[in-house]
Each structure stands twice: as C-alpha cells, then as structure tokens.
Design brief:
single chain, elongated, 6 helices, mainly alpha
C-alpha cells in the first residue's frame, strides 16, 4: 500500500536522523510520576482513593507501569500495607456510622 510519500523524500526523512517516537509525548517522566506517588503516600490519607482524588496521576501510573500496584511498588511503597490500612479505616468508619445511626434513630413506641 502506498503512503503518498515519494521514495526519495522518504529516504531524506530517514537520513535526517531517527524518527520521532510514535504516540503522544509523555507529560510526566516515570521518575517524576514515582516522586508524585511517594509524596501522596506520606499524606494522612495515604494512597486511599487516589483514583478519585488524583485521577490523572492514577491513570498515568496505570499506563506507564501496567497497574497502580506496579507503580506503587516501583515507587518503593508497601502497597499491601496501604490496602490493609485503608480497609481497616473503612471498617472502623462503617462501624462508627452504624453506631451513630442506632443512637439517632428513635425507638418505636410500644403498641397500645
């Protein structure tokens, strides 16, 4: 299939040097992304709900490293520990909300 570029012009283009890499240029280098993940990991919330709070970082990490877990591991963070603490906080919050709801819901009056 012909791409519309004459052979001589094609030779000149390749003789000028290596072609530009295909696709969009990266907006953030892998090293900069890993630094950003490390900075997010030291916050009080840690890496919990990053996909909601920092969606662009999460998506970029998945594109560059294949998965969020791989990106976090490459940043030198304990992803299993981060998940465990997030689950623990989630369970504690759920229990706290359930206790508060039980306290605020009035009891039904006994039938007459």
């Amino acid at each position: 299939m012909h791409d519309g570029v004459p052979g001589e012009a094609k030779r000149e283009m390749t003789a000028a040097g290596p072609a530009r890499p295909r696709g969009r240029p990266p907006e953030m280098t892998p090293a900069a992304l890993l630094e950003k993940i490390r900075a997010l990991a030291v916050r009080e919330d840690g890496l919990f709900r990053i996909h909601r709070t920092h969606g662009a970082i999460y998506a970029r990490a998945r594109r560059q490293f294949g998965s969020w877990a791989a990106a976090v591991a490459a940043a030198g963070q304990d992803y299993g520990g981060a998940l465990a603490s997030a689950r623990r906080r989630s369970i504690e919050n759920r229990r706290r909300r359930a206790r508060n709801v039980r306290r605020t819901v009035p009891l039904l009056a006994p039938p007459r």
